[in-house]
Predict the 3D structure of the following.
Amino acid sequence: MNLNSAHESFRKYLKKENHRITPERFEVLDYALNYKGHFGADELFLEMKTNHSNISRATVYNTLELLAACDLLAKRNFGENKTRYESNYDRKTHDHLICISCGAIKEFSEPRMENIVSEVAEKLGFETSGYSFNIFGKCTNPNCKLKKNVE
Amino acid sequence: MNLNSAHESFRKYLKKENHRITPERFEVLDYALNYKGHFGADELFLEMKTNHSNISRATVYNTLELLAACDLLAKRNFGENKTRYESNYDRKTHDHLICISCGAIKEFSEPRMENIVSEVAEKLGFETSGYSFNIFGKCTNPNCKLKKNVE
DNA sequence: TTCAGTGCAAAAACTTTGCAGGAGG
DNA sequence: CCTCCTGCAAAGTTTTTGCACTGAA
């Protein structure tokens, strides 16, 4: 993955929106892109703290909002009452299947969704900015129920 | 709306699952079915308290879980990091369009979703128990931005 | 009689806010 | 030099938990 071009996009976005370019914001970006799978804001903050970063909670929450606003991250919600983020960088859009028993999350791409979303939005007079589509169920993993393998 | 038949379903469910039949649980059911639109657990708890109910927070949270488990209520999450419930009783399934500016929520039915959900679940080896499909965007209401008219 | 369910209050989990000091433009 | 951004800690919101008591079966 090319971090430099992600930095470039972010820098451009910050400039355009009149936000300041700070080292802290790029530090959060690096951690976010290196995170495998989905993560919560607090999770990322704690990981950064563990790695002896001097970052503050407020800065992490604020920066993740910015990264979602410029589409470098995708904002998700899997029904756990917390916001999750996921790198959007170099990836194609996808939806999620969540096991309600062990928490495993599988991704899938469903080409029909794009059409459905734009048709519905047009019919109801909305200007779409995104959608979320999650399927819940029970997975066939034999270890299911044994471990909370959320990823 | 026929409350009696909802009571009947709930009673049946509780019996089947070996949960006790308590007046508190039916009190929560009544409040939930009478609530117009979507509500959070704490909202319902506070409304019940306002109406001088003797119910406890724990009982409300617990009972709403049960009502969702037996499909009298639908559990929703509109990306606000809180669980919302909605009566499922006597209503057909539907999805939601959420205005990110004023919070308005519109409902729509999309018949194609059912097929997509079962196809995806089968392909990936999941036993489906439900799905959530929310479209986010900006509505055309001229009052949009003025009031938080969540419903 | 028994133990699941209840009310209450405290804790937990996640997020937002207020403030004083520091650095980007 | 003017603010926006930062770190910190405190407060806010929603949900969960522990405990002693009560009432359904």
In short: Residues 121 and 128 of chain B are 6 Å apart (CA to CA). Strands of chain B lie at 39-40, 73-76, 84-87, 95-99, 105-108, 126-139.
